[in-house]
Amino acid sequence: MAIFMEEQTVIGKIRLGISACLLGEKVRYDGGHKLDRFITETLGRYVEFKPVCPEVECGLGIPREAMRLVGEIDHPRLQTIRSKIDYTQQMLTWAMNRVKELEADNLHGFIFKSNSPSSGMERVKVYDDKGIPVKKGVGLFARTFMEHFPLLPVEDEGRLHDPKLRENFIEAIFTFKRWRDTLAGGYNVRKLVDFHTRHKLLILSHSQAHYRQMGRLVAHGREQPVEALYSRYQQLLLESLRLKTTVKKHLNVLYHLLGYFKKELSGDEKQELLEIINHYQRGDVPLIVPLTLINHYVRKYQQPYLKEQYYLHPHPVELHLRF
Fold first, then answer.
1. What's the chain's Rg over C-alpha atoms?
2. H or E stretch including 96?
3. pLDDT score of 140 more than 60
4. What's the rounded Cα separation, in Å, for the pair 272 and 284?
5. How far apart are alpha carbons 168 and 259 in whole angstroms?
6. What is the reported pTM?
7. For the chain, give me the number of helices (H) and strands (E)?
């Protein structure tokens, strides 16, 4: 089992853009940092980071006066708090050039600094003309990045403390890395069919609608130019990965998996698995519990199709996910 899992998940370094302060770089306005040890010590074992500090890279010093977003929610200005100096255009001009440079890094995702007026991806405070904040803003660089790379997996370090959001992001970046590895070998329909076959149940756990749409696309793959086929498939893949998994979606996949053992499982084995799935449905045990038993049956009964399913091993077990 351990050998199989390693072959499934260790796929080379994933390239992530990241707010530089999260790596411990002392680039914040007060000369400090916001080192995140899960990111650097745990996730960092599998990731090559590409640090970005918008304020420093656009020409501001360390230390510097603190800034905040002011004005309209959708089009805020970046302004220093005390002296009211406006750095909006300086930041936006730099940001538009920087995202074009990042194209060359072929990133698999980005981790932003939460609540930052430049890098916060959501719920950033925007102050009105009376100085009253509303937590509905997006940092100027983060907005530019997400508009330029609309389907790339993104998160902030605050949201990564939520186990389910952490799992969703990590699953997305590992899947996208496998997709990029597939692209690196050139385009052909056979390779696409193989990738899709191995990821069917993982896609189903995110979106039944995308699962069906992607299945039809692959089934008729030879009816269109291969470049267009790959482009459309990538769009649907990344769209599906942005949709969060839920207990209900996982239950659908678990019962789907159970169907592959109709002839093999004894009555007691089937009853045990159904009971554990029920415990998961009620929230008594995490997802890893029924999946561990299913993986045992995959190995015991030599299910060749399920052995290839990334849903059962989407990322390294050392990341302690599958809640």
1. 22
2. helix 88-102
3. yes
4. 15
5. 25
6. 0.91
7. 13, 8
